[in-house]
Amino acid sequence: MNGAGNLMDFLDEPLPDVGTYEDFHTIDWLREKSRDTDRHRKITNRSKESIWEFVKSLLDAWSGWVVMLLIGLLSGTLAGVIDLAVDWMTDLKEGVCLSAFWYSHEQCCWTSNETTFADRDKCPQWQKWAELMTGHTESAGAYVLNYFLYVLWALFFSFLAVSLVRVFAPYACGSGIPEIKTILSGFIIRGYLGKWTLLIKTVTLVLAVSSGLSLGKEGPLVHVACCCGNLFCSLFSKYSKNEGKRREVLSAAAAAGVSVAFGAPIGGVLFSLEEVSYYFPLKTLWRSFFAALVAAFTLRSINPFGNNRLVLFYVEYHTPRKTTQLGKYPVLEVIVVTGITAILAFPNPYTRRSTSELISELFNDCGALESSQLCDYINNPNMSRPEDDIPDRPAGPGVYMALWQLALALIFKIVITIFTFGMKIPSGLFIPSMAVGAIAGRIVGIAVEQMAYHHHDWIIFKNWCRPGADCVTPGLYAMVGAAACLGGVTRMTVSLVVIMFELTGGLEYIVPLMAAAVTSKWVADAFGKEGIYEAHIRLNGYPYLDQDEFTHRTLATDVMRPRRNEPPLSVLTQDSTTVEDVETLIKETDYNGFPVVVSRESERLIGFVQRRDLILAIKNARQKQDGVVSNSVVYFTEDAPQLPASNPQPLKLRRILNLSPFTVTDHTPMETVVDIFRKLGLRQCLVTRSGRLLGIITKKDVLRHMAQMMNQDPESIMFN
Amino acid sequence: MNGAGNLMDFLDEPLPDVGTYEDFHTIDWLREKSRDTDRHRKITNRSKESIWEFVKSLLDAWSGWVVMLLIGLLSGTLAGVIDLAVDWMTDLKEGVCLSAFWYSHEQCCWTSNETTFADRDKCPQWQKWAELMTGHTESAGAYVLNYFLYVLWALFFSFLAVSLVRVFAPYACGSGIPEIKTILSGFIIRGYLGKWTLLIKTVTLVLAVSSGLSLGKEGPLVHVACCCGNLFCSLFSKYSKNEGKRREVLSAAAAAGVSVAFGAPIGGVLFSLEEVSYYFPLKTLWRSFFAALVAAFTLRSINPFGNNRLVLFYVEYHTPRKTTQLGKYPVLEVIVVTGITAILAFPNPYTRRSTSELISELFNDCGALESSQLCDYINNPNMSRPEDDIPDRPAGPGVYMALWQLALALIFKIVITIFTFGMKIPSGLFIPSMAVGAIAGRIVGIAVEQMAYHHHDWIIFKNWCRPGADCVTPGLYAMVGAAACLGGVTRMTVSLVVIMFELTGGLEYIVPLMAAAVTSKWVADAFGKEGIYEAHIRLNGYPYLDQDEFTHRTLATDVMRPRRNEPPLSVLTQDSTTVEDVETLIKETDYNGFPVVVSRESERLIGFVQRRDLILAIKNARQKQDGVVSNSVVYFTEDAPQLPASNPQPLKLRRILNLSPFTVTDHTPMETVVDIFRKLGLRQCLVTRSGRLLGIITKKDVLRHMAQMMNQDPESIMFN
Fold first, then answer.
1. Which domains occur in chain A, in start order?
2. Which of A86, A225, A510, B147 is the right S-S partner for A75, CB 3.0 to 4.6 Å?
């Protein structure tokens, strides 16, 4: 790691790209950390020199909080704009506001003075398309025309979304959470969090959600917030030049994303901690907390109409990339799925409305005056209780009708959500899975309620359900169902419960929500330990080391390269390799770095040198340093010997040598090696026996070995 | 680490104590983990042999959840019993219930039918001592008698508490959180979580809280829950025999403790994560969540009267041990402080009542009919609004009186709390610091309210405070003040906010609470980075590696032993040391282990052997293995050579040799070494250069070096 110290001096020279990484490679956390400490030390030392340097050091110390503030402000603003745009465009599929075409249905009637609270959905300014074009409102022709235009708008929105993604920013599709998880674990995917992705994802997210597809906007909002984080990183060299520090900012940005997606700042911090982040020191926790706070506050200032918190809220997911035949034609796929969704969704009132409105209705309990079909109970005529304590009542025909429609909606949602995931548009999984859970929960809730009403002498009801009491709340069943379904998909526990009660304000339901989260986790884990994001990461072959325990009894010697029948390890010697040898080695192999040993005979390890740094250093020396030719000897020792003048000038490369490479012995069990890779974020590790270098283990080797031990195809691990 | 595998075989032999640690020593996390994996692997292999073994393996897999269930049940029960006992004994200081002496004031009047809701505090069955003894109630003599008995009871309770702690369980004093933090980081303090501590702490906690001292019961409840965790660990060899696994259970137990202390299950999990725990993998998060859930549920079942959540809640802290003159006489100290507390507290109504009741009153807002002195506002006669929307009103004389009393209570609380910390009784800091914050907050709140009422044309009030509106809520100021004060003391952020809103149900105040937490953290950090628990750990000299970044530019070679002028490192050779040599080495040094090298000339490292294991193995061999004498050669190689019969029989010790000791090079920067110690939980690490062994760094060396770099006394680090 002292090499890193020397690296910094090297960086001061005008040599771009030393210490950076190539696309689709893994970063070395220890090295990044070391570089940041050097930078920090340098600034601290300089700060004593002048007032200006002191001010600069203060700015540097506060830059973390400034970045958090900016991320909070921008992601809150974007989420607010997206919310307003989605509201407007979703309503545009059905009609238009005559007084101002940029008003959504709610805003249109809100500004109209003629409506009372009960009729708040109906006002003359808001006209459905058929009414506007033909003047009719209730005829069969008007219904068909509305239906047709609804499908047409949906197709138009989704076509626009998929085309924009395809042409301008392929990385904008999906939810982005699996990729962000991978990036946070130390992988480089250039452009994934770029400005272009930010712009296109924001626009297409509005289009995709407005088209009525069975997808959520919460996951993509996390991606959008991370793009904001990456954008602001570029303002400060502290973050833009250090991949480790950058990831601290991105973890906090993910928290801000969930904060605005669900209106749940604490839930956002916990989501980032439990689900997304890889390294999450306490400092990042406090910064995430601050970013989430600013973001939630900004969103609330921009969109004061978002009082219905559920409308603010979503969490999403992106389908596996094992594509179908249709998957080869992404535009066609999106059009077909949108068409089917729109055609099937329109006739059923529970699928036509936006999913978050549906969830909100399912969560709510029936007041005495509720007009919803779900609340068509037969009221007891001599009821004299206050409104908020209504005893269980027999269901009326509306409720039975609603039950049938909900059952159809449940099947439809399950099937269409499966097909919607993984299309090439921004899409989230949170809201669709909550909807499935909420529908199932509400159906069960109504069934139990009616059973309790008609059979209150049954043993299970006897003790806690007196006749005439309000003992079953179907809305609570829906809430618990939604939490359980979401928990099963993502395997969240703590963050799930916090998000649910920040979302619903139902702090008193914490115990049933916790019980649902634990149960769904147990049941889901019995089928397979992987949550949806991990499954996605595995399908894409990203190099992600998850937290699962490795329990096989293999040793480092079983995993290291070279294997028994392979050619020996490519090493450099400290004082007997020529520039030509090095260049040949670089040309003939594609390893990311080479160990440096005392001599080929003793095989005693001196250090490790990165391929990328080696190429840059030799190129630079050949250009600028006179006398360095192909048969110059490369020295990694502290002092190069005095050579006779006839010999070519030596090339001293100790400054790019990492003098503290990580080593383990060949007897180290793989579980310890996996632990070291995971906790220290290593890129590679050298294997020795009694001080002799035997081989090397890279992160890829570790992942392939783990895949092999779990009887998976080791070739599915594709990147370094 | 393969050594650990061999160690297991060794453990099967009847050799007790191999693989255990001495008191006040640090555990080796990697080794514990390795041992657990071996155990797990063995059980998995055996499970295929018979149905009985399969059932045993299932039991083993579920034992973690079973332990959590038991911890939740017992700690919930204990917390419920403590709550009820404290209620009764606190009231006993003032009077007694005639109908049943074991009823508290509230229960006494609750069961009486004669009282109305408004008079729920007055009933004939409850009699103050003076009333019972003299028949008078309102006279000056009765007041003095009540005062005298109040002080007497307080002195009796605190004397009993301090004597019990002193005689039976010295570890039961204080809050225990700093020690639990240290234990969770891998330190051994035998008896700290024992059965005796559990019993005495539970009893003395009731006495200490009832005596009216300025202390909280929340911190001690965390200690009590951890004792429960340790108790149930002993039921399963999986946990009792593995110090690493035991600490996973203890982390979850701490969560259960906070869950019952505050009635805040989610807050408990986050407190354990943010404040207490050292290693907190996701699996522990889920288990903590479950334990906290069960504990909260059990508590609610036992103590259904605890609807006033604040009464359930406390967090505590234990004062630094740098004792005063008085500190040498702990019993006297407690008696004196209790006497002063009782004498000064009785006359002021805000200090006489229990601190949690005080906080509860300060948090509450004034309704129109509120009888509290704090709510003595001058009502507008033509007020016709609903009760819950009362506009700002001018303060009456009662409010001004209350303000003076609150100001006195504030000073008293601050001073007496400082003296109460660190006495030799169970004591917590949460409630006292919340009380200080809440009093200050309420005073500021009332001041702002009156300013807004009298000067609503001032610029700051103009925009958000119309005349006749309810624009200032003093109760909210108290809540924010409590959160800010607590945040400053403990430096919690996320867990603080979650605990506050689980406590108060005020989900809508999340934004001011978050702002208070962030601000108080910033301000407190400007004075010093250490929270109260870290300060306490440092004062006690415990070996705790905190999360602060180490930014000094030192290298492993600067820290390792031996230093330049010291004798060379004590090593063993793989095949040329005799039993006598080893015994001499053990006698002459007190190192915890010795590196094993190929030969003294080559200094190539083979492995590391623990002192404790070496002593046990030699003792065992001398007793049982014929022919092992003082000049037998000790072999650490795979095969001992065939020796002539005249030579003494060799002693083969490869099975106790750790073949994968952790090594770093001498050039490794100390920040990396610190990181490795912290993240992998190492006990020691060997230092090499080019494959040659140079020295050793232990956790103590690291901590001493860190203390030195921060200009602290390195000798303050006392334990290994």
1. 326-378+389-540 (1.10.3080.10), 556-716 (3.10.580.20)
2. A225
